[in-house]
Amino acid sequence: MNIGDIAQRTGLPAKTIRYYEEIGLVTPRREANGYRVFDDKDIHRLTFLARARALGFPIEDCRTLLALYKDDTRASADVKRIAQDHLAQIEDKILQLQSMRDTLTHLVHECAGDNRPDCPILKDLAKG
Amino acid sequence: MNIGDIAQRTGLPAKTIRYYEEIGLVTPRREANGYRVFDDKDIHRLTFLARARALGFPIEDCRTLLALYKDDTRASADVKRIAQDHLAQIEDKILQLQSMRDTLTHLVHECAGDNRPDCPILKDLAKG
DNA sequence: CTTGACCTTCCCGTGACTGGAAGCCCTATC
DNA sequence: GATAGGGCTTCCAGTCACGGGAAGGTCAAG
Buried-most residue among A4, A113, B71, B110 (CB within 10 A)? Predict the structure, then answer.
């Protein structure tokens, strides 16, 4: 399986897969011509990565999660801690964004959005 | 007013203020010794920037908003459009994050978090 | 034999800073 | 007058997770 096929099967862009190799997340073997060849294990790792990334885990978390996955003697507590920390970050970000959204919604509502220069949005930004 | 005082008054790190100068968002004059000197207009612009950035507007939006603010002949519609587009992006991101949060919350709930290796989180990531 | 679709590496750019090094400037103190 | 400190300057590198694009090798089909 060449990188193009793998990209299709995992949904990851070829560029991303090459990047993952560069930082040591996958290590496909090479054919004589230099092409990467991916076996089932590589595909599995990449699928795992795609899913973990889709859940927003940073790359280094993904690396750790992969290591834990491979380790039969892991404690699920270690996995859970990573997930909980990440979850906390996400919840934090949601709160920040909601606060921005609320302010912006209010301001946009107040603004006439016509040809006149009078604008509560700018007024608010200017007053600090 | 030197950069340190301005940093305190605006809440922006000195590094950030220098960066804003570098990309042309402020243009403080210089003293003979090379130190930046900020006048009231600079302070006002920086306060505006701090507030716009706090609402999540990207730098280039901030640049445009500053230009609109200075332009007495602006149409509030132009400001409103920028704010609405930005708001839409934020709402998008909130939805993405909420989806991640929901999945993660579920997985974390399912995971015992003990010494045993059995872990629904890893199971979910692995199955893709 | 050529075309076109693959694949390779390499390097730069993204956004908005942040950290750190090397060095100048100013004031206060001994 | 030397020195210590704090603040200021510039410049360079790093962040995070890729994406774009150039220059060139490879392979299957016609």
Answer: A113
A32 in reach of chain B (CB within 8 A)? no
Architecture of domain B1-55: Orthogonal Bundle (1.10)
CA A37 to centroid of chain Cα atoms: 25
Token code pair at residue B115: 């010494």
Give the pLDDT confidence of A55-67 residue by residue, as tens digits.
999 999 999 999 9
Cβ <8 Å between A119 and B74: yes
- Residue A46, SS3 per DSSP: helix
- Other C-beta atoms closer than 10 Å to the C-beta of A114 total 12
Å from the A110 CA to the C4 C1': 57
Q: Which residue ranges in chain B fall short of pLDDT 70?
A: 128
Q: For residue range A4-49, what is the model confidence (pLDDT) as tens digits?
A: 999 999 999 999 999 999 999 999 999 999 999 999 999 999 999 9
Q: Name the A residues in 57-86 with CB < 8 Å from any B CB.
A: 65, 68-69, 71-77, 79-81, 83-84, 86
> Considering only CA atoms, which of A33, A57, A123, A34 is closest in space to residue B100?
A57
Residue A116 DSSP one-character state: S
Nearest of A82, A49, A71 to residue B104 by alpha carbon: A82
- Would you state the pLDDT for residue A128? 63
Query: Are B107 and A48 a contacting pair at CB < 8 A?
Result: no
Q: CB-CB: which of A81, A87, A126 is closest to B69?
A: A126
